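During the first year of the project, the team set up a workflow for recording each protein of interest as an amino acid sequence followed immediately by a discrete structure-token representation. This format lets reviewers and collaborators read both layers of information side by side without switching files. As required by the reporting guidelines, we include two representative entries from the current panel. The first entry is reproduced here exactly as it appears in our internal archive.
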Amino acid sequence: MNPLIRLIPSPLVRFFAKPYVAGDSLEKAIQVCADLGGRDVHSTLDLLAETIETQAMADRNLETYLEMVDAVASQPEFSDPARRPSLSLKLSSYTTDPLEEGGKAAGAADAARAIAVKAKEHDVALTVDMESRHWTDFTLDLLGELHAEGHDHVGAVLQTRLHRTEADLDRLPPGIRVRLVIGIYQEPAEVALLDKEPMKERMLQFAQVLLERGHYVEFGTHDEAYVRRFVDASLDRFGPDRFELQMLYGVPRGKLVTEMHQRGCTVRQYVPFALSWPMAIAYLRRRLDEFPAMMWLVAKNWLWRR
């Protein structure tokens, strides 16, 4: 990690990050989802739990996700499955043998399968997040296996910065739900675009391909111009039931959300939480290390709130 990132005091990281993390417990995160639902904003819950150092940590993450399934399925606010928060998981949260370090991700597939089984029993949608390029083949292979086993409630994520993503569209199980993002992981130029504008242009291009192939598209960006371009290109042609717009919890886009609701579009916010603030701070330090410009974005959003 960049030494300068390590030197940022934890209280300062927490101060700037607090609006973007739904607390340090599952109970607090569920309340955030309920509050969003009251404003007609859907949600997807994600536990901040990466860089697993012990098997006990991996086991605790699996246990927490199983608790998350029970929690969202049992809340009266989410009695309608269509309004129920979905869950997002990262495969690296369940292994001490990460692929980016030359490992085999031992235990990750079994954990994801156990969560998928329980989520299907309780009518909870699940999304397997995409991590760095080292995880792409492993993740796509697992998604294919899960769908072959009948887990059509499990969705995928594709990052448009990667050059391989256009070919990966052909590897998706038929009809799988797909979240499109540019991706936050910094990748070398030989495997990825380095400029954001062409990444976003790819989002528009790939979204239309996915819609034409019958996929449900989750278009994930805060760039208002690209959100509008996507909706303009998709709404009349495919209808509002074939896609949704996804944004990060805490990023101020109230006017855009209202506008999209008026156009009949579904909006969902990605709601991360941790089991403790030290875990959330560790996650945010890693994100700052991968994407240093994030600090300026956070500061800009904080000033916007003043």
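The second entry, processed by the same pipeline in the following quarter, appears below.
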Amino acid sequence: MDKLINLYDLTFDELAQLVAELGQPAYRARQLWTWLYQDLAADFAGMTNLPRDFREKLAEVATLGLEQPVLEQRSSDGQTKKVLFRLPDGNFIETVLMRYEKRRTLCISSQAGCAMGCVFCATGQMGFMRNLSVGEIVGQVIYLARELAAEGQRVTNIVVMGMGEPLHNYRNTLAAVDILTDSRGFNLGARKITISTVGLVPAIRRYADEQRQTPLAISLHAATDEERDRLLPVNRRWPIAELIDAARYYVAKTGRRITFEWALIEGENDTIEQAQALGRLLQGLLCHVNLIPLNPTAGYGGQPSSRERVAAFQAELAKYGVTSTIRVRRGIDIQAGCGQLRDRAIQELTPRSQE
């Protein structure tokens, strides 16, 4: 085997097949799966109930997740940590750990870069490099789960809202979710993992048809096509009417509430008129709106809305019976918004070309 196998790329059945190919009895697959997802083993040598020759062979043909991050940063309050991983092909991805009173939430990436081009997003500004593999998605979770386990804690929630558009990498993203929710392994409840999309309508309908238990969030950010076209180029392909129709389809098929994300930009989409348009758009739909003051990025001149404008926007939404929550921004001092740490660090981490 020329290329090492990332064991976190494998389903249990695929792992069992590998174990058989290495001449081991079937029950070794269960032991190995437990080491991967319950014991969170960082190396093969520590898998002490496996025969030494099996462990040595595994070390020859396989790896255990991502390499150590090339950069880590903690927020000044100690509640948010961001890590930057360099992949074997030289691409970078970011993962964030957010500590709340009762929750330990990870924000993970599904792609290196992003093809959606949202103007206020640092990842959208950098363009698309490639999809992440299943193991690269799962590996982000495992790396930080090991850190939490050392503190006697565990991952309680995951949001797939980091770099990339999860539904653009549909197969690998949902395969990673299936592995992380496997009751025999990592065993995180499906409802503890939220998938966020900018609005890929066919993928939303597919997601609904599959009756997924993982919650769905849609990054809306504008209630009129004119405004959304400026902020999210994907709207030119699937305008708001088609997107909301897909959202209604999702609710009808699953019976589950859908979440809309709204990054509030001072003087852009935080006006009373936009709040009224959003209220009319969502009235009667089983949904909730997360209001998030913008994370500023170097490539976009917009600024976060003031506390007063956010409150006025929320109050106007309530008149239409639309519930909302004002989300506290986390990790602003360490560039915890999507793509920001990668942009800041890439020049010092990438060798310069020869003059």
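For the second entry, the following points were noted during internal review. Confidence is low (pLDDT under 50) at residues 351-355. The two ends are 38 Å apart (CA to CA). Both points are flagged for discussion at the upcoming steering committee meeting.
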